[in-house]
Amino acid sequence: MKCVILAAGEGKRMHPLTFTRPKVMLPIAGKPLLEWNLLNARDAGLKKFIFVIGYKSEMVRNYFGDGKKWNVCIEYVNQGKALGTAHAIGMVENFVDDFIVLCGDTIFGKNDIKNILKKGTKIGLVEVENAGEYGIVELAGKKVVKIHEKMEEPFSNVINAGIYHFNKKIFYYIRITEKSPRGEFEITDSINMLVKKEKMEGVFLKEWRDVVYPWHLLDANEELLKKIDEKIEESVEKNVTIIGNVTVGKNSRILSGSYIEGPVIIGDDCKIGPNCYIRPYTSIGSGCHIGNACEVKNSIIMDNSNIPHQNYVGDSVIGQNCNLGAGSKVANLRLDKKNIKVVLNGKKLDTKRRKLGIIMGDNVQTGINSMMNVGTMIGNTVFIGPGTVLAGEIKPNTKMM
Amino acid sequence: MCGIIGYIGFRDAKGVLIESLKKLDYRGYDSAGVGIVDKKLKVFKEVGEIANVEKQIPQIKGTLGVGHTRWATHGAVTKENAHPHLSCDKKIAVVHNGIIENFQKLRDELKKKGHKFISQTDTEVIAHLIDDVYKKGNLEDAVVSALKKIEGSYAIAVVCEDEPGKLVGARKESPLLIGVGDNENFLASDIPAFLKYTNRVIYLDEGEICVLTKNSIKVFDKKKKEIKKKEEMITWDVKDAEKSGFDHFMLKEIYDQPDTVHQALRGRISEIENSIEFPDRVEKLLNSNLSSIQIVACGTSFYAGLVGKYLIENLTNIPVFVELASEYRYFGTRNESSLVIVITQSGETADTLAALREAKNSGCRTLVVTNVIGSTATRIADGYLLQQSGPEIGVAATKTFTSQIITLCLIALKISLLKNKLGSDELYNYIFHLKDLPRKIQQVLDRSDEIEKIAKYLKDAQSVFFIGRGINYPLSLEGALKLKEISYVHAEGFAAGELKHGPFALLTKHTPVVAIVTKDSTYYKMLANIGEVKARGPKVIAIAEDKDTEIESHADFVLRFPSDSPVLPCLSITVILQLLAYHVAKERGCPIDKPRNLAKSVTVE
Question: Which CATH class name applies to B253-442?
Answer without folding.
Answer: alpha beta
